[in-house]
UniProtKB/TrEMBL annotation:
Cytoplasm as UniProt keyword: no
Species assigned in the record: Zeaxanthinibacter enoshimensis
Domain of life: Bacteria
Position of the signal peptide: none
Transmembrane segments: 48-71, 114-138, 145-165, 185-208, 220-240, 260-278, 298-318, 324-343
Residue stretches making up the Acyltransferase domain: 9-342
This protein's name: Putative membrane protein
Keywords annotated in UniProt: Membrane, Transmembrane, Transmembrane helix
Keyword Signal part of the UniProt annotation: no
GO molecular function: acyltransferase activity, transferring groups other than amino-acyl groups
UniProt-listed InterPro entries: Acyl_transf_3_dom (IPR002656)
Organism lineage string: Bacteria, Pseudomonadati, Bacteroidota, Flavobacteriia, Flavobacteriales
């Protein structure tokens, strides 16, 4: 049963679906001419709605998979090997997030552009994973229900208070830190409220793990997911309206006016139900490999579309200037290209890493004599200077 739990194919399929949706979503949104963005057009409205589901699904699935791996081992607390692996993973995502926003031409001129400090998906997921580890370590010696309760509590607090804190500019913080909390400076995603989806995915993972031996796990999970999803989509806004009318608390009025977080959470639950129902058909090897290589796909798409490092990307040349007749097939080609490159990297990852390590080792070997010579010359020069000014006797 442990081996079966270690690889849930419907989760990999969900990740693959989410990353492909992200690829076409970024491509179309970045290139489509504004004249064709008509919400009254059923095709565009449907595309826009499903595009809005992509990020919540991706954040939730990330929290689900990470926590499933974290809690499946018997060791607890710092003895759990997944803790250090998770910390490294979180820091790695932060590093890659900033790396993708570097511009080499700017660095050559001694400049770091303001876009470098903006926060995106990888930053938020990286910090969210570190946050989940923090909650895990703080609750590891508590009752079993404390860990999932705190995770669910994080989601509820972040989602319920969103109308209040979204108005804050966090101007008292340096921009690099404020960008994690506000979109005022141009960040695409922020830790609040998006950590809420990752925490909810972690909560689902704990619940799923606790009841994994239940005889009718999937039928019950599918039914519960559909019921909760439908309730959040269709009844959360009326509920907040009643709460506002009853209590007069303005936060509830804000949720009535813009209840996207809970509605999207309902969409996530419905997506979970659909993929669980179709789990027996979602075993295609290529699809599963895509779901297991989402980071590579994300990095490649960022370089090709947005021009990481060089600033030379498709987005810069065709920004909001393309008609649907070109954008639609272009998005399909873009998805295939990024997926193919990621799978090729996955197949050759060890060879690539070995070659990179070899190049770095060669550079080190060539640089060491030069650095050593420079160090000796510097030490000799300093000794001579100290003797000249009288600090050291000859």
């Amino acid at each position: 049963m442990e081996q079966k739990l270690s690889r849930l194919y419907f989760i990999d399929a969900m990740r693959a679906w989410a990353i492909l949706m992200m690829l076409q979503g970024h491509f179309v949104d970045g290139l489509l001419d504004p004249v064709f963005r008509d919400d009254s057009n059923i095709v565009y409205a449907t595309w826009k709605y499903f595009r809005g589901i992509t990020a919540p699904v991706f954040f939730t699935v990330s929290g689900f998979i990470f926590t499933l791996l974290l809690i499946k081992v018997p060791e607890k607390g710092w003895q759990n090997p997944r803790v250090m692996k998770g910390i490294k993973r979180g820091l790695q995502l932060l590093f890659i997030g900033y790396l993708l926003r570097l511009n080499l031409f700017g660095l050559l001129k001694g400049e770091v552009y303001g876009s470098f400090y903006l926060v995106d998906v990888l930053h938020c997921i990286g910090l969210s994973l570190l946050g989940i580890i923090g909650v895990y370590l703080l609750t590891t010696k508590k009752k079993k229900y404390v860990f999932p309760t705190v995770l669910l509590g994080i989601t509820m607090v972040l989602f319920l208070l969103e109308p209040m804190y979204k108005q804050w500019s966090f101007s008292f913080l340096p921009d690099m830190l404020a960008n994690y909390l506000t979109k005022a400076n141009g960040s695409v995603f922020t830790l609040i409220p998006w950590m809420g989806y990752t925490a909810f995915g972690a909560f689902l993972s704990v619940v799923f793990s606790r009841y994994r031996a239940m005889k009718h796990l999937y039928p019950v999970s599918i039914a519960v997911s559909l019921i909760i999803g439908a309730a959040l989509i269709y009844y959360s806004t009326p509920l907040f309206k009643v709460l506002f009318d009853t209590t007069g608390i303005t936060v509830f009025q804000g949720l009535v006016n813009n209840n996207y977080l809970f509605i999207r959470l309902g969409n996530v639950m419905v997506v979970f139900a659909v993929f669980m129902a179709l789990r027996q058909f979602l075993t295609n090897n290529t699809l599963l490999r895509l779901g297991q290589n989402t980071l590579s796909i994300y990095v490649i798409h960022f370089i090709v579309l947005y021009g990481s490092f060089t600033g030379l990307g498709i987005y810069g040349f065709l920004h909001h200037g393309v008609a649907p007749a070109i954008v639609v097939p272009g998005a399909a080609i873009f998805m295939v290209l990024c997926s193919y490159l990621a799978l090729q990297y996955d197949a050759q990852e060890e060879v690539i890493k070995t070659r990179i390590a070899g190049v770095l080792n060669t550079i080190r070997e060539q640089a060491e004599p030069v650095l050593l010579f420079g160090y000796r010359q510097l030490r000799a020069s300093m000794s001579w200077l100290l003797r000249v000014i009288g600090f050291v006797k000859s």
